[in-house]
């Protein structure tokens, strides 16, 4: 049996050092949350699901606000993003139905790639897109160069 002495197994894997973007999302509140004609039967119990497929642990949700047309959440969530990929936030406004399946009021998509760093951006989304239900979110994105994904460089570990 012969071995290739020119083969170095430690050279097979190359690691690229990239900074991790940190996204803070604050779900401020909603206005005029409605299920349409179903409001005559039951006042909405809304909650919001946030999904970013490209982020680790990229699914979060707010607490359910019982019988609330104008919910105030003021809940903050943190996501870790890879700046080298196309990051999109998928928001799904839901109505909690106790004892049966929850109902989707609407959903919206938002591209996170154009957010300015270190600035708070406030944006309102409507559910469905042409509907009356409105949810306000605040976004803040920043890079922390000390939190590299793959590094053992002592300068960045301080």
From TrEMBL:
Task: Note the InterPro entries from the entry.
Answer: C2_dom (IPR000008), C2_domain_sf (IPR035892), Synaptotagmin_plant (IPR045050)
What is one term from the GO cellular component aspect held by the record?
Answer: endoplasmic reticulum
Short name of one Pfam family: C2
Q: Which residues form the C2 domain?
A: 4-125
Q: Which GO terms describe its molecular function?
A: lipid binding
Q: Which Gene3D superfamilies match?
A: C2 domain (2.60.40.150)
* PANTHER family listed in its UniProt record: C2 CALCIUM_LIPID-BINDING ENDONUCLEASE_EXONUCLEASE_PHOSPHATASE-RELATED (PTHR10774:SF190), EXTENDED SYNAPTOTAGMIN-RELATED (PTHR10774)
Protein name listed in UniProt: C2 domain-containing protein
Q: Which organism is it from?
A: Magallana gigas (Pacific oyster)
Lineage of the source organism? Eukaryota, Metazoa, Spiralia, Lophotrochozoa, Mollusca
């Amino acid at each position: 049996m012969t071995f290739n002495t020119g083969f170095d197994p430690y050279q097979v894997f190359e690691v690229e050092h990239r900074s991790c973007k940190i996204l803070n999302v604050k779900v401020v509140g909603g206005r005029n949350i409605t299920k349409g004609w179903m409001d005559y039967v039951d006042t909405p119990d809304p909650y919001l699901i946030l999904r970013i497929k490209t982020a680790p642990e990229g699914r979060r949700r707010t607490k359910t606000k019982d019988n609330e047309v104008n919910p105030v959440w003021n809940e903050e969530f943190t996501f870790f993003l890879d700046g080298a990929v196309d990051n999109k936030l998928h928001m799904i406004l839901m109505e909690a139905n106790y004892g049966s399946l929850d109902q989707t009021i609407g959903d919206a998509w938002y591209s996170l790639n154009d957010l300015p760093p270190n600035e708070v951006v406030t944006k309102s989304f409507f559910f469905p897109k042409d509907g009356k239900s409105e949810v306000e979110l605040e976004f803040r994105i920043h890079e922390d160069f000390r939190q590299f994904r793959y590094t053992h460089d002592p300068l960045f570990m301080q």
